[in-house]
Design a protein that fits this description.
Chains A, B: It comes from Rhizodiscina lignyota. Chains A, B: One of its GO terms (biological process) is mRNA transport. Chains A, B: Has a role in nuclear-cytoplasmic transport of proteins and mRNAs. Facilitates protein transport into the nucleus. Could be part of a multicomponent system of cytosolic factors that assemble at the pore complex during nuclear import. Two copies of one chain form a homodimer. By secondary structure, chain A is α+β, with helices and mostly antiparallel strands. Chain A has a single domain (3-118), classed as Nuclear Transport Factor 2, Chain: A (Roll), CATH 3.10.450. Chain A has helices at 3-22, 46-54, and strands at 30-38, 41-44, 61-72, 79-89, 96-107, 110-121. Chain A has a six-stranded mixed sheet, with helices on one face. Chain A starts with a helix and ends in a 5-residue tail after the last strand. At the A-B interface, strand 3, strand 4, strand 5 and strand 6 of A face strand 3, strand 4, strand 5 and strand 6 of B.
Chain lengths: 126, 126
């Protein structure tokens, strides 16, 4: 398995575990130039991103990853990650599908999140 | 509206129109270093990508975009695009949900597709 695939899998596992247990701690994954677009709402910078994530209107959340794809995003070690999965919030019984794209950028032996785009995916009605 | 948003919207409109009408012509959007991961199958390079896309097991396909998000992916003009939508193939009546992430890279006044990751999204069963 290529290294970018291993990094992507470790990142995704850590990201959703942290999100589901204590999402304020996601701050460590973002920098001032990081971007989040969450359901069409754009936020720039770690502080604003974590404020956005911690203020989402639910207390409990559980993500379950269904697919994870990774590709090198440039020749400097960046990694594009596309996740699909389902999530459950609070006492809601019905899971929602979502997709999330990340770009991870290397920094001092680790990676931070440069791009983060999240969308719920509604069932096709056709 | 920011320029990257306009580029992303024009790209997505052109991409799916071309895909649905004559997908062999998507070759012009890829380069030798472009990557496609289509339902977990990875392909490198324009020739292989177009072969993969033209050999997909359907004759007719229609994409309908439900959401489009874009962010700058680096300081050299790259653009990350995340699409969700539905598609119909051949005579199938039931639409399928999908998500697709692209990274567009500038080249000579235009852009090519460096990263392309496609996944069907199945309804959450919870």
């Amino acid at each position: 398995m290529s290294n970018f695939q291993v990094v992507a899998e470790q990142f995704v596992q850590f990201y959703y575990k942290t999100f589901d247990e204590s999402r304020g701690q996601l701050a460590a994954l973002y920098r001032d130039k990081s971007m989040l677009t969450f359901e069409n709402q754009a936020t720039l910078g770690a502080a604003g991103i974590v404020e956005k994530l911690t203020n989402l209107p639910f207390q409990k959340v559980a993500h379950q990853v269904a697919s994870l794809d990774a590709q090198p995003s440039n020749e400097q070690g960046g990694i594009l990650v596309l996740v699909t999965g389902v999530l459950l919030v609070d006492e809601e019984q019905r899971a929602m599908s979502y997709t999330q794209a990340f770009q991870l950028v290397p920094e001092g032996g680790s990676f931070y999140v440069y791009n983060d785009v999240f969308r719920l995916v509604y069932p096709a009605s056709g």
